[in-house]
Write a structure and sequence with these properties.
About 60% of the residues lie in helices and about 5% in strands. It has about 1000 residues and is mostly helical. Among the domains are: about 110 residues, no CATH class; about 120 residues, Four Helix Bundle (Hemerythrin (Met), subunit A), CATH 1.20.120.330; about 100 residues, no CATH class; about 60 residues, no CATH class; about 140 residues, Beta Polymerase, domain 2; about 150 residues, Up-down Bundle (Four Helix Bundle (Hemerythrin (Met), subunit A)). Strands 1, 2, 5, 6 and 7 form a five-stranded mixed sheet that branches. Strands 8, 9, 10, 11 and 12 form a five-stranded mixed sheet that branches. A two-stranded antiparallel ribbon has the order 3-4.
């Protein structure tokens, strides 16, 4: 390549460029005839000299040629058609993302340039058809999803190249990006429905839709936008699934949503599709992933807030039954666009924007800065909220269409419209050029002059100075309009963070903040407690509420300082306060030391309880009004009318609080939780029997395992067996229906959640046997065919509801059978082997992790030891009043089966294990017995059980588990050596 041709191009990295030029020259020499070589080189050098980034373009064209299957053929086409050379350099100098797509699949360039791909904008129907065609060649779902990813990659390139060529403007590009996402989401959702239908054997016969929110809803999606979605289905109901299960619509559509999100966001060899954000749904992260239409409408009508009206302006049904979705939004119209407001919505919009700017809106952020994209959107939305209740033609999801409609109603002048649209087009183009560089969701202008000049040239401007000046001028015009529409509050004033809290905290405030490990987060959270809103703008507190908070702030800080986890305590308090309608009442009650200490304790140790208080505002009201009664542990009147789910959650919350405050032991806690479960099982059973076809069924519901031993904890399964007495075959079938209904109602997933998981596999012959067993059949089975482990499981058998005579008869029969069995040394050693087998069920396979239940030396060692003692005593005709683990250990020590030292050690170990298990559920919300790896969660767990850090906890656990296993093996061998008479 001639030196003079090279000298016209100014490279930022000359050495690298020299290497690339030499390699490029070698390919040219190998692949093109002499007659066209010089002209081709001159043409490329001229294009490089005038492109936005010569270094990037040269690197990418070299990569592209090396990746091409036939470089000679490609170069032949490039030498003949100047438009192809220009297109390549335009792509390779403007977007590393698009360049990487072409390098990955060079044939896409031929597809772009030899078809009509670049000549037209596609419609939703075309995308809908093409997505189905893309997946139709494959059988496996995984391959279908990968086919969608390849289709997405091809189409994003096509849309982007049309954008770079100027064949489509901002409105066209964002519309096409949006309907591409619509079609992919719809296709993925239908795939998920198909897969779930295969899994369950049926699907709900009710409509469903996926609502697009944010930029997707407005058909103005960016190249790298997150996708905001909300899933709504028709009426509640249930389907009869395979294996006799009953699946509620709620569970089905939650599974569908989870599946869609997983497929969209999981990275494979073909990349990912979209980042899905479901946080704008009702109740945000705390709410269910899918809601029925009536639940959705009820939420917005009863609890919807101002920012949610604004958010729903852009709501658009894009997948599933779109007519159903449109009808839903029509019903929400009076909420989104009320004809009158009790409070001017522009005030909240102004405050929201001020907070956004305080947190994120530096001048480099073209989206969030003063006068940026968000100001334009807020101007349109503020005018829509105020006027669209009376003028339906203003109800436009798309920002540009909204601005046009507002101009048509003279709510914007011609000059204002021109300023806003000019700014919107430029700012969105800037945003797109930033994002297509590396497929990164960014809105930040480059800080260096060189990079700013590259950006300007990609926008057909001369230099960065020209672009900066143009942006500054338009921002000033936009902000002037924003202030005239929304109000001068946007500039700060009394809506900023008051000087007593937030970004302007005085020195004494900063001293208080040293109790927090995350200072910036703490300052932001304290500001939210005062102001009553986050950057999402949920709610703005009035002056009385702010004053009420300032009065208690020092007291809260002091209580947080002495808490287990000040950062978590503050964050959870924010979660709670921002969901209250009248936080002033809470702030006033927090003046009382006892209640304040209680709430800070809850917030700092248990996100789970905070979540309950958020979802059930009545619980917090009761806690504030009747704290002493709740903590007493006695019967609490007034909760009998609660729904069965609310009753469970309230009682569990009450038991947890008492334990957290040290008012109950772990034995008390598990006993209270067991009693709650008994009442729920009894209440459901009585209701089902009352509604059944038979009267007075001779039936007993028998609890086994921890439920039988009165030792269940949070999220425990319920082990149940159903026994009948003296019933005919016809009535047995009716009782089977009763028992199946009881299991179904305990385990069903509804919008209120699930009550319990039920395990009925401990019945005779296991899961394949009838769910109800006649007592004579049960006794014969136990006497003739039952395995040793089944006798072990019966140690804690206890009838919890049913016919009193059958309950008593069943318990007596079990005692008789247990007493009739004489245990040999081999039986005891077999129990040890059974225990060893349970260790293999643990999911811990990595060093440094501990399973305190199934692991060697864990809880099950102690439980097996206690159960073996019970079997021995029952085998010699003893009567056991309490078969709980700790009670059995006490009996074993009093009778000399274990030493007093062993008793103290085993009891302390068991209590420690159960406390850790409890805190895994309450503090970390983990339904597991495996300690987390090192990190913040691990240290928090350690502190919640009184340890300095996780290192100390694991050292203690490791030592304890080794000693528990030693005692277990030693004592089990001693049991085996005994001679039973």
């Amino acid at each position: 390549m001639k030196q003079r041709a090279r000298s016209r191009v100014r490279f930022n990295d000359p050495r690298r460029a020299e290497r690339n030029l030499n390699a490029f020259n070698e390919i040219i020499i190998r692949s093109t005839p002499d007659i066209v070589r010089d002209d081709l080189v001159q043409s490329f050098m001229s294009l490089l000299a005038n492109c936005a980034d010569a270094d990037m373009a040269l690197t990418n064209i070299l990569r592209f040629l090396e990746a091409s299957f036939t470089p000679a053929s490609l170069l032949h086409d490039l030498s003949r058609y100047a438009i192809l050379r220009e297109l390549l350099i335009k792509i390779f100098s403007s977007s590393q993302y698009f360049s990487d797509i072409l390098v990955r699949d060079p044939e896409l360039f031929r597809w772009l340039t030899t078809s009509d791909a670049l000549s037209r904008e596609k419609t939703y129907d075309q995308y809908h058809t093409e997505t189905r065609e893309a997946i139709s060649l494959f059988e496996k779902t995984e391959r279908k999803i990968n086919a969608l990813k390849r289709f997405y990659r091809r189409e994003i390139l096509r849309i982007g190249v049309r954008d770079l060529l100027g064949s489509s403007d901002v409105v066209g590009v964002t519309r096409e990006l949006s309907i591409l996402a619509d079609a992919i989401i719809d296709c993925t959702a239908h795939l998920a429905i198909t897969e779930l239908t295969k899994h369950y054997g049926a699907r709900p016969e009710t409509p469903w839709t996926i609502i697009g929110l944010g930029k997707l809803g407005g058909e103005e999606l960016n190249y790298s936008s997150d996708i905001d979605l909300m899933v709504v289905y028709g009426e509640e109901g249930e389907i009869d699934a395979l294996n006799g299960r009953t699946i509620h619509h709620h569970e089905f559509f939650i599974r569908m949503t989870e599946t869609v999100v997983q497929w969209m966001m999981t990275s494979t060899s073909e990349g990912t599709l979209y980042r899905i954000d479901l946080r704008l749904r009702p109740d945000g992260n705390s709410g269910p992933l899918a809601r029925s239409v009536e639940s959705t409408i009820l939420y917005y009508e009863s609890r919807g807030e101002q920012w949610e009206r604004q958010m729903l302006i852009k709501a658009r049904p894009l997948a599933g039954d779109r007519e159903f979705g449109a009808h839903l939004l029509e019903r929400l119209g009076p909420f989104i666009y009320p004809r009158t407001f009790f409070k001017n919505p522009t005030e909240e919009i102004a405050r929201m924007k001020a907070r956004i700017e305080q947190e994120y809106g530096d001048d480099a952020n073209i989206k969030l800065c003063p006068g940026g994209i968000r100001d334009i959107e807020f101007v349109a939305q503020a005018l829509q909220l105020i006027n669209a209740g009376k003028h339906p033609e203003l109800r436009q999801r798309n920002t540009m269409k909204a601005l046009e409609a507002l101009r048509g109603k003279s709510l914007l002048s011609e000059d204002e419209y021109a300023t806003l649209t000019s700014a919107y087009f430029l700012f969105r183009n800037v945003e797109h050029r930033l994002q297509i560089m590396y497929d990164v969701q960014t809105h930040t202008l480059p800080s260096s002059t060189r990079e700013m000049t590259k950006l300007a040239r990609r926008l057909s401007m001369n230099n960065g100075k020209q672009l900066t000046g143009h942006i500054r001028s338009l921002r000033l015009g936009v902000r002037t309009i924003f202030d005239s529409v929304v109000g001068s509050q946007s500039l700060g004033g009394n809506v900023g963070v008051p000087s007593r809290l937030g970004r302007d905290l005085p020195i004494e405030g900063l001293i208080l903040l040293t109790i927090f490990s995350q200072i910036d987060e703490a300052k932001k959270n304290l500001g939210i407690l005062l102001r009553g809103s986050s950057s999402m703008g949920r709610k703005e507190f009035d002056s009385r509420t702010q004053e009420a908070f300032l009065n208690i702030a020092p007291l809260l800080i002091e209580d947080l300082r002495t808490s287990v986890n000040p950062d978590l305590g503050l964050a959870n308090l924010v979660r709670l306060v921002t969901r209250l309608r009248f936080p002033e009442q809470l702030y006033t009650t927090l003046r009382e030391k006892a209640f304040r200490s209680l709430l800070i304790k809850i917030c700092s140790v248990s996100p789970r309880i905070v979540t309950l208080l958020i979802h059930h505002s009545l619980f917090l009201d009761i806690l504030m009004a009747r704290m002493s009664e709740i903590l007493s542990g006695g019967e609490l009147t007034g909760i009998e009318s609660f729904s069965i789910h609310d009753y469970k959650y309230f009682q569990e919350m009450r038991s947890a609080i008492r334990n957290i405050l040290g008012l109950s032991t772990i034995e008390d806690l598990t006993g209270e939780l067991t009693l709650t479960a008994e009442k729920i099982v009894g209440r459901l059973y009585a209701r089902i029997v009352k509604e059944s076809e038979i009267k007075n069924p001779k039936l007993a519901v028998v609890a086994l395992g921890k439920f039988g031993g009165k030792e269940i904890t949070f999220d425990s399964d319920l082990d149940l067996v159903f026994v009948s007495s003296g019933e005919t075959m016809e009535r047995l079938e009716a009782m089977r229906v009763i028992c199946q209904s009881l299991i179904s109602q305990l385990t069903e997933v509804t919008e209120a959640g699930r009550l319990y998981d039920v395990d009925a596999r401990l019945r005779p012959e296991g899961r394949n046997a009838p769910v109800v067993t006649p007592i004579e059949t049960y006794q014969a089975y136990l006497e003739q065919r039952a395995a040793l482990w089944e006798f072990q499981s019966l140690v804690k058998a206890r009838a919890v509801t049913g016919d009193l005579a059958v309950m008593s008869e069943t318990e007596r029969m079990i005692r008789v059978v247990l007493a009739s069995r004489k245990y040999s040394s081999q039986d005891i050693r077999s129990i040890v082997e059974m225990r060893r087998k349970t260790e293999t069920r643990s999911k811990v396979h990595a060093e440094g992790f501990y399973d305190i239940k199934l692991g060697i030396g864990g809880m099950m060692d102690i439980e097996f030891l206690a159960q073996t003692f019970c079997l021995i005593r029952l085998g010699v005709g003893e009567t056991l009043n309490d078969t709980g683990t700790l009670a059995s250990l006490n009996d074993a020590a009093s009778l000399g089966y274990i030493s007093q030292n062993e008793l103290r050690f085993l009891k302390n170990s068991y209590i420690e294990y159960r406390n850790i298990e409890k805190n895994l559920r309450l503090a970390l919300e983990i339904n597991s017995s495996i300690l987390p790896g090192r990190g913040q969660k691990a240290d928090f767990l350690a502190k919640s059980v009184g340890m300095a850090d996780f290192k100390q906890l694991t050292k203690e656990i490791e030592s304890r588990m080794k000693e528990v296993r030693r005692v277990f093996l030693y004592r089990m061998e001693k049991f085996a050596e005994m001679v039973f008479t």
